[in-house]
Amino acid sequence: MILGIAILIPFVDKLSPIFEWIIVSTNNTLKWIADLPYSTLSSVWINLPELILLSFALGLFVYALVKYNKRCMFTAFLLFISYQSLIAYNDWKTISQKKVIFFTLRKNYAAAFISGSKAVIVTDLPENDKNFQFFVKPALEQSQVNKFNFVNLKKDTILPNFILMNKQIIFNKYKILILDESLNYKKLLVHGDFSSIWITGNTKFKLEKLPKEIRYRNLIIDATNRDYKIAEIKAFAENIKLEHHILKKNPAYLVQLIK
User: Fold this and answer.
1) pLDDT by 10s per residue, the chain, length 259
2) Distance between CA atoms of residues 153 and 199, nearest Å
3) Which of 57, 63, 44 is nearest to 85 (CA)?
4) Model's pTM, two decimal places?
5) Which of 4, 23, 101, 127 has the most CB atoms around it within 10 Å of its CB?
6) 141 touches 45 (CB < 8 A)
7) Could you tell me if 154 and 164 are in contact, meaning their C-beta atoms sit under 8 angstroms apart?
8) Are 221 and 109 contacting, i.e. CB atoms less than 8 angstroms apart?
9) Cβ-contact 34, 63 below 8 angstroms
10) Geometric angle at alpha carbon 129, from 123 and 131, rounded to 5°
11) What angle in degrees, to the nearest 10, is found between the helix axes of 48-67 and 70-96?
12) Domain spans of the chain?
């Protein structure tokens, strides 16, 4: 930018071809580097304490090399050890994590049942869909999930630590009852305790008709429901002072199974 301003000065503008050559050469070199195999890094997540420790460690290390200062070198080493300790702690948290994320989408549904670095993705989106790439995948990368299985609510599935069967999901003692369009105008014959009831598919099933034998703590309403249906369910939940989470135009809902 400074060189660009300099060529506006009289007589200096004669050097503009040289400045142009420098800029073009720099851009071509950067493009060549960017096109090299494995020249980019992605999914690198670092929190603020780690960034501060790493920055100070590198700064003190460079200063110690320039000034031949052993004390600064030792301090930089201690800071780097602290940084590595935080990295190791976060890796341990990743391995032991168990949580569920219900994502906010415009017209679809998606939930990630995460155990360690693996996840079961319950969604009606394909992996290459732009909504999945934009709304779901970044959260999986941040949680350091590198292996996942895609599951649809319409198909019964049994996986390690995950069961989807008979309109019910069981994941590490977290139980969900699913109310979808297949239950329209039908009588529900089920009983037991559930963590959540997941309402999807703009179902016409009336919550007032839930069997009294069912106990649940909250409602999850995804974006496949129409606005009028969401308003109806919201009014029902507020009337009985029941916790509810609307996934349309609202933040995602996170359930931590290990605290």
Assistant:
1) 555 555 555 555 565 676 677 778 888 887 777 776 655 555 567 788 888 999 999 999 988 888 888 899 999 999 999 999 998 988 888 888 999 999 999 999 999 999 999 999 999 999 899 999 999 999 998 888 988 899 999 999 999 889 999 999 999 889 999 999 999 988 888 888 999 999 999 999 999 889 988 999 999 999 999 999 999 999 999 999 999 999 998 999 999 997 6
2) 11
3) 57
4) 0.75
5) 101
6) yes
7) no
8) no
9) no
10) 75
11) 160
12) 48-95, 98-256
Amino acid at 227: D
Q: Are 167 and 188 in contact (CB under 8 A)?
A: no
Alpha carbon distances (Å) from 75 to 65, 66, 80, 84: 13, 15, 9, 14
Q: Which residues is 163 bridged to in the sheet?
A: 158, 170
The span from the CA of 37 to the CA of 121, in Å, is 30
| DSSP element (H, E) containing 177 | strand 174-179
Residue identified by tokens 């690198």 is 44
CA 183 vs. chain centroid, Å, equals 31
Q: Is 180 within 8 Å of 158 (Cβ atoms)? A: no
- C-beta separation of 112 from 140 below 8 A: yes
